[in-house]
Design brief:
A 15-stranded mixed β-sheet has the order 8-7-6-5-4-3-2-1-15-14-13-12-11-10-9, with helices on both faces. Strands 16, 17, 18, 19, 20, 21, 31, 32 and 33 form a 9-stranded mixed β-sheet that branches. The protein has 17 helices and 33 strands. The protein is of the alpha/beta class.
C-alpha cells in the first residue's frame, strides 16, 4: 500500500512538473514579426505571454545607425485595458527611455517623458505610451472592434474612433480585416487583423508584418494603399472649392521686390491673376465672388525647398501656405503622385523639382537605390534622367572616388548634383568634384572637422553638437570656404529647424521647434515633441545650445556675404516650414529677405518664376491670405486663412480639421 501511495504521489508530482513545464513552454512561445524599413528587413518585433493577461515584447530596427531597441511588459485587465506597463531601452535617436504605468484600486500613477503624475483610474480607458513597441496598436484595434460605439477613451485624456473595418479576402483565400483608426495621429492608422490578432501594421516606409504573412506583405501594402487613396479622394472632393472669378478686395499685397502694396483689389480668373488695382471701395466685377482682405496680407504661395512627399502630407503643405516643393529623394513612382496632386485627386503642392537619390552599399546605407559600384551608380543616374528627374542627390555611403564621375554624368545629362557629404570627405572636396548644392547646415560645419569622420553614422550630428561652437566665423579657413560657395554658386539648403529640435530641445520639455503649435495637434504628435532630440545632459545642454546658435550665426553671415540659401524642412510640412522662417529671422535675416527666399527667389532657382513666386498679372494664382503682416512679424506666416492653388481654394481650417488639428484661431 505504501509503495502504491509513493508511486501515486510521484506520479502526481511528475504530472504537475510536466504540466508546469508545458505551461512554461507555452508562456515563452514567441510570435514574431518582421520589421521592414524602406523595403529592407531592418529588425524584429516579438511578443509572448508571460502569464495570465501578462505579455512581454521586444522591438528593434536599424536605420543608418539610428533606430529603437525596446523591451516592454504589459498587464491587461478583464476588459483588455492596460493596468500595468513597463518600457525600457533606447528610442530612434538612441536616447535612453524608461516609462511605466500602474493602475490599481481606482487610481493610476505613471512616469514618462512628460514627467510623473497620478490620478483616478477606473480601468476603462487606454493608457497610450510615448515610445514603445507596436503592442498598443494591437490592443487599441481589438478594443475598437469590440466597442459598441466604435470609440475608445485614452488615459488620461483623448479619444480615438474606428472609422472603418474592411473585411478582405487575400489571394491565398485567407480572410482578414483592415481597421482604420482616427484620433491618434494626423493621418489615419491602419492595422491588419486576423482572428482579432494583429498580423501587420503598414505606415509609410515602416512595415511590421507577422512572419507567417511576410510573403503577403506587398499585397497587404497594395490593398491598404487603395483604401488610403479612396479616403484621400473623398477629402479632396469635400474641401476643394473650385473657383471661377474671385475678387480679393482691399488686401495688402506682398510684391516681388519685397514691399507691401496696401489696399489692392486682386481679381483671379480661374487659375490666372487677371488684374491688380488700387481698391476703389466698390466691387469692380459684379460676377466675381468677393473676399474681404482688409488688414490682411496676400502672398504668393511659398516654396518648401526640401521635402519628401507622401500622399498624406499634401494637406499640411497647403494648409500652411506651401504650394510648391522640391522633392529631394523619393521612390521612382513620384511622378504618379505629382500627377494626382496636379489633377486634385489628392490634395497636394506642385512638385517643381524631382530629385533622385543614390547611396553606396554598407551598414548605414539609405536603403533606397543602393549601388555596389560606380557603374551601377552611373546607370541609376541615367534611369532617373529617363524618368525626367531634374537632380541627383548623393548620400553618405557613396565612395569619395565615385563623386567626380557621378557628378560628371549628371551634368552631362543637364542634371544638378546635391546631397550629404559622403563619409571621409569634406564639403570643399565635394564642391570641387561637382556638387551644385549641399543639404543641411551640419554638413557645412563638418567641413572644418577633418575628413576622417564617418558621416554615415550619427557622428554627423554629434560632432557638430559638440564642436560647432568652436567654428570661428572670422577665420581664414571659414572665409575661404564662403568664397568657394560663392565662386561656385553653391546653393545651401540649411534645414535649420530640424537641428534646433536635435540640439536645443530637452527630454521632458516641449521642444522649442514645435511648442507654439503642439497643443493643436493629435496626441501622438504632441508626445513626440517631448523626446528631447539628441541625448544630452550636464554641460552638454549648454554646449549643444551654443553650437546651434553658432549655426544660426553662420546662416546669417553666409546670407550677408551673398551665399544663396533656400528654406526647406526635411520634416513636418507647413508647421516646420513656419519655424524655419522664424529661425531665419532669429538669426538676423530681414523678414523681407526671408519672404523673398520663400517665394520669388525659390521660384527663380527652380525655373518657375515665369508662372509662380510673385503676385503679377498673368501669373498663376497660387496665393495665400495671411491674417496679419509677416513683414512686420514673421510669425504671422502661421496665420494662413486660405490657399489658392490650381484653380481651387482651400480653407486652412477645413484642411486642419481633416487631420485632427485645431486652427490657429
Amino acid at each position: 500500500m505504501r509503495s502504491y501511495l509513493t508511486f501515486s504521489l510521484l506520479f502526481i508530482v511528475f504530472m504537475s512538473c510536466s504540466e508546469s513545464q508545458k505551461s512554461e513552454d507555452n508562456a515563452t512561445e514567441k510570435i514574431k514579426y518582421d520589421v521592414v524599413f524602406r523595403e529592407n528587413l531592418a529588425g524584429k518585433f516579438e511578443k509572448w505571454s508571460s502569464g495570465d493577461s501578462s505579455f512581454k515584447y521586444t522591438y528593434d530596427y536599424t536605420d543608418r545607425g539610428r533606430g529603437p531597441k525596446i523591451t516592454e511588459e504589459i498587464v491587461l485587465n478583464d476588459d483588455n485595458y492596460i493596468v500595468s506597463e513597463n518600457i525600457t531601452g533606447v528610442n530612434y535617436l538612441k536616447d535612453s527611455i524608461s516609462e511605466n504605468f500602474k493602475g490599481l484600486n481606482g487610481s493610476a500613477s505613471w512616469k514618462n517623458p512628460m514627467g510623473e503624475d497620478k490620478a483616478e483610474f477606473d480601468g476603462d480607458k487606454l493608457y497610450f505610451r510615448h515610445d514603445g513597441s507596436p503592442a498598443v496598436y494591437e490592443i487599441l484595434a481589438q478594443l475598437l472592434v469590440n466597442s459598441d460605439n466604435k470609440k475608445v477613451d485614452l488615459y488620461p485624456n483623448g479619444e480615438v474612433e474606428l472609422v472603418d473595418n474592411f473585411s478582405i479576402t487575400l489571394s491565398d483565400s485567407t480572410s482578414v480585416n483592415l481597421v482604420m483608426i482616427k484620433g491618434l495621429e494626423m493621418n489615419p492608422r491602419y492595422i491588419w487583423l486576423k482572428d482579432n490578432a494583429m498580423i501587420a501594421s503598414i505606415s509609410g516606409n515602416l512595415h511590421i508584418v507577422r512572419e507567417d504573412f511576410s510573403a503577403l506583405r506587398k499585397e497587404l501594402q497594395s490593398l491598404q494603399s487603395t483604401y488610403e487613396d479612396e479616403y484621400l479622394f473623398k477629402i479632396s472632393k469635400e474641401v476643394s472649392n473650385q473657383i471661377d472669378k474671385v475678387l480679393i478686395k482691399n488686401v495688402n499685397v506682398f510684391s516681388k521686390d519685397g514691399s507691401i502694396i496696401e489696399n489692392q483689389d486682386v481679381l483671379v480668373d480661374g487659375n490666372i491673376i487677371k488684374s491688380i488695382k488700387p481698391s476703389m471701395g466698390k466691387v469692380l466685377n459684379g460676377t466675381a465672388q468677393v473676399i474681404d482682405g482688409t488688414n490682411k496680407t496676400l502672398l504668393p504661395g511659398m516654396f518648401d525647398m526640401h521635402t519628401h512627399n507622401t500622399k498624406f502630407r499634401g494637406l499640411l503643405h497647403l494648409a500652411g501656405g506651401v504650394t510648391s516643393v522640391r522633392d529631394l529623394a523619393n521612390n521612382k513612382q513620384l511622378k504618379q503622385l505629382s500627377a494626382q496632386f496636379d489633377k486634385n485627386e489628392i490634395i497636394g503642392p506642385n512638385i517643381v523639382t524631382f530629385c533622385g537619390i543614390i547611396d553606396g552599399s554598407g551598414p548605414f546605407a539609405n536603403q533606397r537605390n543602393v549601388v555596389d559600384n560606380l557603374e551601377e551608380g552611373l546607370a541609376e543616374i541615367q534611369s532617373y534622367k529617363d524618368l525626367d528627374y531634374d537632380q541627383i542627390k548623393l548620400y553618405s555611403s557613396i565612395r569619395p572616388e565615385w563623386v567626380k564621375p557621378l557628378a560628371a554624368k549628371a551634368h552631362e545629362l543637364n542634371m544638378r548634383v546635391s546631397g550629404h557629404i559622403p563619409a571621409y570627405m569634406t564639403a570643399s572636396q565635394a564642391i570641387e568634384q561637382g556638387y551644385n548644392e549641399i543639404q543641411h547646415m551640419n554638413m557645412l560645419f563638418l567641413n572644418f572637422m577633418t575628413d576622417t569622420i564617418d558621416t554615415r553614422t550619427p557622428l554627423r550630428f554629434t560632432m557638430v553638437a559638440n564642436h560647432g561652437v568652436e567654428l570661428d566665423l572670422k577665420s581664414k579657413e571659414y572665409l575661404d570656404f564662403v568664397e568657394l560657395l560663392k565662386s561656385k554658386d553653391i546653393l545651401v539648403d540649411a534645414t535649420m529647424a530640424i537641428f534646433e529640435n536635435m540640439f536645443v530641445s530637452q527630454k521632458g520639455e516641449p521642444s522649442p521647434t514645435y511648442s507654439t503649435i503642439m497643443n493643436r495637434l493629435p496626441l501622438i504628435e504632441q508626445r513626440a515633441f517631448y523626446s528631447g532630440g539628441l541625448p544630452k545632459s550636464g554641460i552638454k545642454v549648454a554646449l549643444y545650445k551654443d553650437s546651434y546658435q553658432n549655426m544660426l550665426n553662420a546662416l546669417y553671415d553666409m546670407h550677408q556675404r551673398g551665399v544663396s540659401i533656400v528654406p526647406g524642412t526635411d520634416g513636418l510640412p507647413g508647421f516646420l516650414y513656419h519655424r524655419e522662417l522664424e529661425l531665419y529671422a532669429k538669426a538676423g535675416i530681414s523678414t523681407v529677405d526671408i519672404l523673398k527666399m520663400a517665394t520669388i527667389n525659390s521660384a527663380k532657382i527652380t525655373g518657375m518664376s515665369d508662372t509662380l513666386g510673385s503676385i503679377e498679372e498673368g501669373k498663376n494664382a497660387d496665393l495665400i491670405l495671411i491674417d496679419g503682416n509677416p513683414v512686420n512679424n514673421i510669425s504671422d506666416i502661421r496665420k494662413v486663412e486660405w490657399t489658392i492653388k490650381g484653380g481651387n481654394l482651400y480653407f486652412a481650417e477645413e484642411l486642419y480639421n481633416k487631420m485632427g488639428i485645431k486652427h490657429f484661431k
